[in-house]
From TrEMBL:
Residues 214-327 form the DNA polymerase III delta subunit-like C-terminal domain. The keyword Lipid biosynthesis does not apply. Belongs to the DNA polymerase HolA subunit family. This is DNA-directed DNA polymerase. The keyword Transferase applies. SUPFAM superfamilies: P-loop containing nucleoside triphosphate hydrolases, post-AAA+ oligomerization domain-like. Pfam families: DNA_pol3_delta_C. Its EC number is 2.7.7.7. One of its GO terms (molecular function) is DNA-directed DNA polymerase activity. Transmembrane segments: none annotated. It comes from Arthrobacter stackebrandtii.
Length: 336
């Protein structure tokens, strides 16, 4: 039997990687992103079962906890198999759990790993402070809000699967399903399983091209590249299939803002990415788009988008006309 390594240094309190959770008698998963928390729990299970397939698993709900239960399930079993106790719902923990957990973490049971899952907030602050003081490994389970973080997530999923995906396909996938991290992970898994070779934008379009976000970005890509016929035909198809004008204008605005950020700026992609809060591939893509634009044309695009944004959000009787006008102005202002 291989007991879980015991944490003795306060350095363990620093944020641990949710893809590679360190084994310790007690581990804290903190934050509201359920997908990351579930991945972290799976990682702990996999590592412990690799050490001993007879691992005994127990789950506890900290919000509906009965006094004394933690000590009971952590006590040695008849054959002394190692144990994994997963305690979820710490954001709603009751006082019984708080008191028992505070007592337990001071002297964890041997051959037992306790994973504490806290969805965020200040409930149980006394326990959180005690865990930090003891140097318990803490895994941050925070939502990925920035597109560059989601893009990095996609790239890493493919790297771990030893597959390749081009930068534009990453962007298209984030645009199509990036609102939900679990959906984004599922999309990565599907593309990895169902395709061969380098995954391209065509592959992403085949599986996820019908999503509103992806349609909006195809319109924006064509308009910023100065391809008015493609931009307008894609726009009209989107509108005919029920896509709302609001996300269409939002996608255009995002593209124009990105081009404006890199317009006339010199420096390497990596350096600019750090300065501008973008991924290097986003800088490269924006620079390619910027090659179609002049300063006055960008100013014109920004103005027409500000007008279109107000119009599609209730400032005009015909929001469809507003977004068509914006796409036409932008696509004809850009140089082919």
């Amino acid at each position: 039997m291989s007991p879980a390594p015991r944490t003795t240094s306060r350095a363990g309190a620093a944020g641990a990687d949710w893809r590679d959770v360190p084994l310790a008698p007690v581990v804290l998963l903190f934050g509201p992103e359920d997908f990351i928390a579930s991945r972290a729990v799976d990682d702990v299970r996999r590592k412990l079962r690799a050490q001993n397939p007879e691992l005994e698993l127990t789950t506890l709900d900290a919000g509906h906890y009965t006094a004394g239960n933690l000590g009971m399930v952590a006590s040695p079993s008849l054959f002394s198999e190692p144990k994994l106790i997963e305690a979820s719902g710490l954001a709603a923990m009751n006082d019984y759990f708080l008191q028992d957990a505070l007592a337990y973490i001071k002297d964890p049971a041997p051959d037992v790993t306790l994973v504490l899952v806290h969805g965020g907030g200040v409930r149980g602050k006394k326990l959180l402070d005690a865990l930090k003081a003891l140097g318990v490994p803490r895994v941050e389970c925070q939502p990925l809000k920035k597109d560059q973080d989601k893009a990095q997530f996609v790239s890493t999923e493919f790297q771990l699967a030893r597959r390749r995906i081009d930068a534009q396909a990453v962007r298209a996938l984030v645009a199509a399903v990036g609102a939900s991290l679990s959906e984004l992970a599922a999309a990565c898994s599907q593309l990895i399983a169902d395709t061969t070779g380098m995954v391209s934008t065509d592959d992403v379009d085949k599986y996820y091209g019908g999503r509103v976000e992806a349609t909006a970005f195809r319109v924006a890509d064509a308009a910023l590249a100065g391809n008015a016929p493609v931009a307008l035909s894609t726009l009209r198809h989107a509108l005919a299939t029920g896509v709302d004008p609001v996300p269409l204008v939002a996608a255009l605005a995002m593209k124009v803002r990105t081009v404006a950020k890199v317009f006339g700026v010199r420096g390497g992609s990596a350096q600019l990415a750090s300065t501008l809060g973008m991924a290097p591939w986003q800088v490269d893509a924006a620079r390619r788009d910027a090659g179609h634009w002049s300063g006055p044309a960008l100013v014109q695009a920004i103005k027409v988008l500000a007008e279109a944004d107000a119009q599609v959000k209730g400032g005009a009787k015909d929001p469809v006309f507003a977004v068509e006008r914006a796409v036409t102005v932008i696509a004809t202002a850009a140089r082919r």
